[in-house]
Every structure is written in C-alpha cells, then in structure tokens.
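Recap from last week: sequence in, structure out.
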Amino acid sequence: MSVSGMPFDDFRALLRDLPGPDARALAAARERDAQLTKPPGALGRLEEIAFWLAAWTGRVPAVNRPLVAIFAGNHGVTRQGITPFPPTVTQQMVENFAAGGAAINQICVAYDLGLKVFDLALDYPTGDITEEPALSERDCAATMAFGMEAIAGGTDLLCIGEMGIGNTTIAAAINYALYGGTARDWVGPGTGSEGDMLERKIAAVERAVALHSDHLGDPLEIMRRLGGREIAAMAGAILAARVERIPVLIDGYVATAAGAILKAANPSALDHCLIGHVSGEPGHLRAIEMLGKTPLLALGMRLGEGTGAALAAGIVKAAAACHSGMATFSQAGVSNKH
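Predicted structure tokens:
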C-alpha cells in the first residue's frame, strides 16, 4: 500500500471504494439450490450461507483453504487493575498456541482449519487509554497494514480471532464510543473481573471515553485512541479480505469491535462477514444487533482465540458441501413438486 498524506488516508480511500457481491454467481447459486433434492428452504440458514459464499467468492460455493488468524496484543489500561490476569499471560498463550495446547488448536484439527498467530509487539503495551491514546496514527495504520498480510498465503474463508489480556475493556470502550448508552451497558467480566475489579473496569471505560470525547466522530480515531494493536490488525485483515473478495467469520466481543469500526466508516464494510457466535460477554449480543447481524452459534462461550468463528467454519463448510454435492432432482430421479 502506498503512503500518501496522513497515515490513515489510504485506508479511508479503500473504505470509500469497496467491491460488492457478484450478482451473477449469486443468481447461479439460487438457481442450483432450487433444483436440489429438498423442499425449498429446507436447509434453512445453510442455504443463505451458500448464497453468501457464492456472492463473495464469485464461484460455486466451496471452502478449500479455511484459515483462523489470531492477533495478540497487550494493553496499557491493565495498569488500572481491571483484570485478574497479568499481561504476561498474552505471551504465554501465544506460546501455547504454537505448542498446540489451546482450545483453538483442537478445533482447527477437528475441522481441518489452518491457523496463523500474529504476535503484535507484546513487550510494548499500548498507551493507557484512560490517560492517552492507545496508538499514534502512524502506529495504528502500520498495524492495520500488517493485519492485511494475514491473507497473504491464500485462503477462501478467513476466521478472525484475538488474544490480549485487557481487551474486553478495549472492546467495551469502542462500543461505548460508537453506540452510546452507559459504560456499564458494555462492560462485562472478560476473563473474570467481578466485584470491585469490575467497578474499576467500568470506571476505566468511562474515563477513557470522556478523555477522548472530542475525537469520537471519526471511527479510525476511535480505533487508534481507544483500541489496540489486535483491534487495528483485525480491522486490516477484514478490510484486506473484502478487497480480495474473501468471506470472513468474525469471532467474539473483541473481534466484533474491530468490525464495528469498519462498519462505522462504511455501512457496507461488513457485508462479506458473518458473526461466528454470540459470546457469553454481556455486551456482545447488543454489539451484534448494532451491526444488523445474526450470529451462527450461541454456545455460551467467551474464550476468544477465534474459537467461535472456527466452530462456525464447520457450519460454513457443511453449507458449501450440501450446495455443491447434493444431487438435483433430475440427477437423482426424484420427482420435484408440481
């Protein structure tokens, strides 16, 4: 990506000129679906998922190279005593991913998904958002550009996830800044904040949004001031996938906040995305509703790591397989409706 003017300028230009769905591929998918050996609509949402795949890939629905991308970052706001775990856990979990010992590793094996983990300067936490911006514009833009490289090896279904101690506080601040209400509406326990710690978390979100209140009209400014490196990288990955017409599954509360930034910048920015699941984090369902989306799964999970998106990838793979592999009425010698 070329650099012109201010660091965010290239991203603003991309967001103004996003490719749309392939109407011809969508029509072909609908035509084939009408001929498959089932009553119309009998596969429910699986049919809509197949149409979504066709529209964004421009071909017969198929998932051959699914990829889970996890972005890991640390946050200065943890100094406010808002989480029971120290920031060192982020690095330890990255090492656990590499060793194959995390939940996401097992799900990727079970569903035959690729996995990439991106360590985003874990030794250098972002600024404490209650006192200063999380990132400079230059650093935020560079991290978005880095996130765009997640698709460089090739994929036809991208699952977006994250790891970062303190990042549900970040997600709550972003949602509060974008959608209003109260900080308490958006703050949940995350990794286990409760009692006085939960109250400190709520207070931190209130202070952060108040501190940056003069800059909340610009979604990219919200991201750099209240976000974090994994937020910026996930936003970059989602944007790159759109440019390359790659369907995306967004994971939980934190990943959804990254998507919300893009949608605030362009209302169509998440048309190539589905929400993999609604997490147990209290603000997630409301955030999904603000995006006008319906999650694929509701399992009460709140782990992060891309786990909900990865599980949803199994459903997407099944939708593609049904659409592409089922026989038509004429092929099977089955009578269609009169």
